[in-house]
Amino acid sequence: EKPPPPVAATKRQKAAALAGAAETDDDASPSSLPLYKLPIGAMWQELRHTHGWQYAKGHGGLGGDWFYARPGAAADRSTWVEGVDYFTSGEALQAWCRDHRIDGVERTGALDER
Question: Is the pTM of this model over 0.85?
Fold first, then answer.
């Protein structure tokens, strides 16, 4: 009798494996790693698809052509503060997520979590 086919790894598991995260996180399951420990690509996909973050074209003095916006940011972009309401680079977003321990479970980065 043939064994069942292997279960496909989740995107988070694949990203964590590529980053070596499982080896550096006391052998935790990659699917259980907090978002702030994932590479920026995997972190962003989770923030965007699961937690309401947006990637939008900048205008009106927001610096940069594109930016990452937190869920709950005001509709009036003129009131936004860089590093609080939005981020102009993946590196800035990733650093902020690490500093604020955005894990994707208890903390998702929404403005009401300040």
Answer: no
